[in-house]
Protein backbone atom coordinates (compact mmCIF):
# COMPACT_ATOMS: atom_id res chain seq x y z
CA UNK A 1 0.00 0.00 0.00
CA UNK A 2 2.80 2.40 0.88
CA UNK A 3 4.59 1.64 -2.39
CA UNK A 4 1.41 2.30 -4.35
CA UNK A 5 0.85 5.60 -2.53
CA UNK A 6 4.48 6.60 -3.08
CA UNK A 7 4.28 5.70 -6.79
CA UNK A 8 1.07 7.67 -7.28
CA UNK A 9 2.56 10.66 -5.45
CA UNK A 10 5.63 10.60 -7.69
CA UNK A 11 3.51 10.40 -10.83
CA UNK A 12 1.35 13.28 -9.64
CA UNK A 13 4.36 15.44 -8.78
CA UNK A 14 6.01 14.73 -12.11
CA UNK A 15 2.82 15.80 -13.92
CA UNK A 16 2.61 18.97 -11.85
CA UNK A 17 6.23 19.90 -12.55
CA UNK A 18 5.97 19.09 -16.25
CA UNK A 19 2.94 21.41 -16.43
CA UNK A 20 5.09 24.24 -15.09
CA UNK A 21 7.52 24.12 -17.98
CA UNK A 22 9.01 27.33 -19.33
CA UNK A 23 7.59 26.73 -22.79
CA UNK A 24 5.37 29.60 -23.90
CA UNK A 25 1.80 28.86 -24.74
CA UNK A 26 -0.23 30.42 -27.50
CA UNK A 27 -1.72 32.99 -25.12
CA UNK A 28 1.69 34.25 -24.05
CA UNK A 29 2.93 34.37 -27.65
CA UNK A 30 -0.20 36.29 -28.63
CA UNK A 31 0.33 38.67 -25.71
CA UNK A 32 3.89 39.35 -26.81
CA UNK A 33 2.73 40.07 -30.35
CA UNK A 34 0.14 42.51 -29.03
CA UNK A 35 2.79 44.21 -26.88
CA UNK A 36 5.10 44.52 -29.87
CA UNK A 37 2.26 45.97 -31.95
CA UNK A 38 1.46 48.55 -29.30
CA UNK A 39 5.13 49.46 -28.90
CA UNK A 40 5.58 49.95 -32.63
CA UNK A 41 2.41 52.08 -32.71
CA UNK A 42 3.75 54.23 -29.89
CA UNK A 43 7.06 54.66 -31.70
CA UNK A 44 5.28 55.67 -34.91
CA UNK A 45 3.14 58.17 -33.03
CA UNK A 46 6.19 59.62 -31.27
CA UNK A 47 8.01 59.98 -34.59
CA UNK A 48 4.97 61.68 -36.12
CA UNK A 49 4.75 64.10 -33.22
CA UNK A 50 8.46 64.87 -33.48
CA UNK A 51 8.16 65.54 -37.23
CA UNK A 52 5.12 67.74 -36.64
CA UNK A 53 6.99 69.70 -33.99
CA UNK A 54 9.86 70.25 -36.43
CA UNK A 55 7.42 71.40 -39.12
CA UNK A 56 5.80 73.79 -36.66
CA UNK A 57 9.19 75.24 -35.82
CA UNK A 58 9.97 75.64 -39.51
CA UNK A 59 6.63 77.33 -40.12
CA UNK A 60 7.04 79.75 -37.25
CA UNK A 61 10.69 80.48 -38.12
CA UNK A 62 10.11 81.14 -41.80
CA UNK A 63 6.64 82.60 -41.53
CA UNK A 64 6.47 86.26 -42.46
CA UNK A 65 2.75 86.37 -41.64
CA UNK A 66 1.20 87.33 -38.39
CA UNK A 67 1.53 85.36 -35.19
CA UNK A 68 -2.18 84.65 -35.45
CA UNK A 69 -1.72 82.69 -38.69
CA UNK A 70 1.16 80.71 -37.20
CA UNK A 71 -0.98 79.93 -34.15
CA UNK A 72 -3.82 78.71 -36.33
CA UNK A 73 -1.48 76.42 -38.26
CA UNK A 74 -0.14 75.04 -35.00
CA UNK A 75 -3.68 74.43 -33.74
CA UNK A 76 -4.58 72.60 -36.95
CA UNK A 77 -1.46 70.43 -36.70
CA UNK A 78 -2.21 69.59 -33.07
CA UNK A 79 -5.78 68.60 -33.96
CA UNK A 80 -4.51 66.38 -36.78
CA UNK A 81 -2.10 64.72 -34.36
CA UNK A 82 -4.87 64.13 -31.84
CA UNK A 83 -6.96 62.41 -34.50
CA UNK A 84 -4.09 60.27 -35.78
CA UNK A 85 -3.07 59.14 -32.29
CA UNK A 86 -6.67 58.42 -31.40
CA UNK A 87 -7.04 56.33 -34.55
CA UNK A 88 -3.83 54.44 -33.80
CA UNK A 89 -4.97 53.61 -30.27
CA UNK A 90 -8.40 52.54 -31.52
CA UNK A 91 -6.75 50.24 -34.07
CA UNK A 92 -4.57 48.73 -31.34
CA UNK A 93 -7.64 48.30 -29.12
CA UNK A 94 -9.49 46.50 -31.92
CA UNK A 95 -6.50 44.20 -32.53
CA UNK A 96 -6.35 43.36 -28.83
CA UNK A 97 -10.08 42.62 -28.72
CA UNK A 98 -9.86 40.42 -31.81
CA UNK A 99 -6.88 38.56 -30.38
CA UNK A 100 -8.73 38.12 -27.10
CA UNK A 101 -11.77 36.68 -28.86
CA UNK A 102 -9.57 34.33 -30.90
CA UNK A 103 -7.83 33.19 -27.74
CA UNK A 104 -11.16 32.59 -26.00
CA UNK A 105 -12.38 30.56 -28.94
CA UNK A 106 -9.18 28.57 -29.08
CA UNK A 107 -9.18 27.89 -25.35
CA UNK A 108 -12.81 26.79 -25.56
CA UNK A 109 -12.03 24.46 -28.46
CA UNK A 110 -8.98 22.94 -26.81
CA UNK A 111 -10.40 22.59 -23.31
CA UNK A 112 -12.63 19.73 -24.39
CA UNK A 113 -15.15 20.52 -21.67
CA UNK A 114 -12.72 20.24 -18.77
From TrEMBL:
It comes from the Bacteria. Residues 1-23 form the signal peptide. Residues 70-107 have a biased composition (Basic and acidic residues). SUPFAM superfamilies: Apolipoprotein A-I. The keyword Isomerase does not apply. Keywords: Signal. Residues 58-114 are annotated as: Disordered. This is Lipoprotein. It comes from Nitrosomonas mobilis.
